[in-house]
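Q: Here's a chain of 424 amino acids. Please give me its 3D structure as tokens.
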Amino acid sequence: MSTVIDDLFPGTTAESTAPATEAAGTPLQAGTPLPLEGIKIVDFTQVFMGPSCTQLLGDYGADIIKVERPGAGDISRNSFPDKDGQDNPIFLSINRNKRSISVDTRTDEGKAVLRRLLADADVVVSNFRSGVMERMGFGYEDLKEQNPGIIWASGTGFGPEGPYSHKGGQDAIAQAYSGVMWRRESDDMKPAIYPTTLCDYITGMHLMQGILLALRTRESAGVGQKVEVTMYDSMLHLQMQEACMQLNRGYEVNWGAMPLSGVFETTDGAVCMVGGFTPDPLLRISEALGLDEDLTLRPEFANLEQQFKNKPALQAIFRERMATNTTEYWTSRLEDQGLLNAPVHTLEQTLADAQTHANNMIVEAEHPGVGTVKMLNAPIRLSATPPTIRRVAPRLGEHNVEVLLENGFDAETIERLQELGVLR
């Protein structure tokens, strides 16, 4: 089979005919390219951290070629049983503006196919465990020999060195190792997993930032480079204020344990109240809650030190009052006093909220097998070059032929690769 690869000749370039749709309300100015138009990214990522990074790059114009395992594809294609199978909402949510090729990377022929794609790629992105790309033959040192300007970007759990370098990265595990999970609103609460993939997303955004910085450096200095981020570092960096206080004062800051803030149940829901960022917050809270006294006059609540010391008693007063009326009643009262507050919404309520729609945060696209797909828009607003949906999330291997034709493979060779099971 090696002769099939050795005898390849440049073929016909196939241009995509996928329709482009506006994902934000502002149209592109005539002739204005998207910020990352012309950037070719070969994407080995899967699950959430990596795909969230590459989708955002794709939303702003990059050509994302998603490399998937034949048959199975990205792990997120099979995360939950769903009526649409591998084209389920979990996968669709983070893989738009990408083209899928399903290549058997265990074969020499499959690796040769990918080397051809990587020969002129601007960026290659992965989020495997440390060392996996190197063992596949796609480490930075391997790739830069044929493509000196390539940007090799990797997101891992812990990085290539250190006692945890061998461990797989996962959101909850990073929460536990980083110290985030240990801090709770009060000591009587048990440590718990944060219920959305906070660490994956933050790390994915750091990975995207690193890629953009490397692209800017290549533009100015003409050099490619390695970009590495870890979930461990990203979660630590999230706690930069707390860490600086701990390192320099030996004091643990816990913003969720502030004595004048908390979540309090009402007769029909709950209110989140933040008793800060305003003069005399406890006096204002006392007035908003309609108390018969100004709690600041009590010695046990007279200052922040005493409020921390006597937080259980103080918050018991808040809870007792909040439980007597509706969420709307208390948010209005707190608002009148200039206190930061919000009703505690479900995700369903938030998706239906007028603010969500005012911000154009829900977009739709047509999928050939699934129909209309609703998903979240990119959160970065650019007035001249807003994000676009040029492609819905691809079916597994949907673009095998298209991508290979663009990269110098002729039709006969592609057919042979398909017959041999390299492309499936």
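Q: Can you summarize the key feature?
A: The CA atoms of residues 7 and 24 lie 46 Å apart.
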